[in-house]
Amino acid sequence: MNQTNINTQKQLPSKEERHKLFGSVDPGPRTKPIEKDEMADLQNSREDFLFDLDAVGISNVKHPIRIYSSKKPEMQTTIGTFRFASSIGKGSKGTNMSRFTEQLDRYHNDGFAVDITTLKKFTKELADRLKQEDAEVEVSYPWFFERRGPFSDLAGMNHADATMKVSYHQQTGYDVEVSLTGKITTLCPCSKEISEYSAHNQRGNVTMSVRLTEDFDENDMDWKEALLEAAESNASARIHPVLKRPDEKAVTEQAYENPRFVEDIVRLVAADLYELPYVERFYVACRNEESIHLHDAIAEVTYDKTEE
Ligand SMILES: Nc1nc2c(ncn2[C@@H]2O[C@H](COP(=O)(O)OP(=O)(O)OP(=O)(O)O)[C@@H](O)[C@H]2O)c(=O)[nH]1
Questions:
Q1: What are the phi and psi torsion angles at 286 (to 5°)?
Q2: Ligand 1 mutation pick, 37, 39, 43, max ligand atoms within 8 A of CB
Q3: Hey, is 103 helix, strand or coil?
Q4: 297 in a domain, yes or no?
Q5: Which helix (H) or strand (E) is 151 found in, with range?
Q6: For a Cys-Cys bond, which of 77, 230, 233, 235 suits 184, CB 3.0-4.6 Å?
Q7: How far is the CA of 58 from the centre of ligand 1 (A)?
Q8: Residue 61 belongs to domain with CATH number
Q9: Residue 168, burial from CB neighbour count under 10 angstroms (0-12, 13-18, 19+)
Q10: Is the minimum distance from the CB of 41 to ligand 1 under 6 angstroms?
Q11: For the residues 196-224, what does the mean pLDDT come to?
């Protein structure tokens, strides 16, 4: 359509007239305070509101974050999904919701590097600003890492889903739990054993959650790399973004030489996590997207070394 035709289109009412046509009305009389300090502050009312609440706050807060990987000094920007909460007593009607994102923005302006030290500082500061005894922060994000072909050495980016949860309590201090879900190849031992040739294999999703010891120092090692290695080193084979034919031959034969049930994966990964000195408690789950079924195969274990 050329310029002249556009000008002959029908004349629309003005935007203000359009809003009125669709129901907008003029502002009514202003009778309530507009200064914050003169406003009602319902959430800070004090009464017996029947129950203490374990967690009150906000969730599904998406925000750009920076993470580090010990192998690479430069930071990686990714998208974090946050959950912030604190408990409140039954004498308090509500929390101060604006303070969660208010503090997040302040940390963002200071270049929010999402590491355990920073999350500890954030969580204690949040409890103080909320005038509560405790607070917790949980953030999940896709973590990207370089993966090279076993023969070609051609690089590409893989990713794993990471989660960090830091809780602070005035009496007990900090509790730090980190999780990672990595993807692997698994080849079925039974299928290999009973078949003249071939064996069904599929992508497996390994989720590991670990509670870290109080003295864990993330400058010593990157927990994301340690958990990923625990999943991948026990798999039938690793997953790669770039595979040339020599690479594909290597990973195909490696999978056949390392058959694994879901039970095997969970037990072998559990053994590796058990041997990590800074892991107090761990949960391991494997979910195989079975290539010969429409359903998945699953296995899980939870183990607490402090209860031995
Ligand atoms: N506690 C609570 N607040 C809510 C909820 N939904 C919305 N809000 C609003 O969260 C807003 C921000 O609360 P506050 O952070 O206390 O706001 P404020 O009092 O202006 O700020 P402060 O001076 O920091 O306390 C209020 O306007 C609440 O109405 C809810 O379900 N619970």
A1: -125, 130
A2: 43
A3: helix
A4: yes
A5: none
A6: 235
A7: 11
A8: 3.10.270.10
A9: buried
A10: yes
A11: 94
Give the SS3 label for residue 172.
Answer: coil
CA-closest candidate to residue 223, choices 262, 183, 279: 279
Residue type, 46: R
Please answer whether residues 228 and 142 qualify as being in contact, where contact means their C-beta atoms are separated by less than 8 angstroms: no
Kindly state if the Cβ of 189 falls inside 6 Å of ligand 1.
no
Residue located nearest, by CA, to atom 32 of ligand 1: 94
> How many Å apart are CA 94 and CA 129, to the nearest integer?
14
Distance of CA 142 to the CA centre of its chain: 7
CB of 101 closer than 6 A to ligand 1?
no
Q: What is the pLDDT of residue 70?
A: 65
Alpha-carbon span 163 to 227, nearest angstrom: 12
In-domain check, residue 11 = no
Range of the domain at 89: 54-307
Residue of 93, 96, 128 to mutate, ligand 1, most atoms within 8 A of C-beta? 96
CA angle centred on 125, ends 108 and 120, rounded to 5°? 80
pLDDT digits (tens, 9 = 90+) for 163-189: 999 999 999 999 999 999 999 999 999
Count of domains for the chain = 1
Residue 165 in contact with residue 176, Cβ under 8 Å?
A: yes
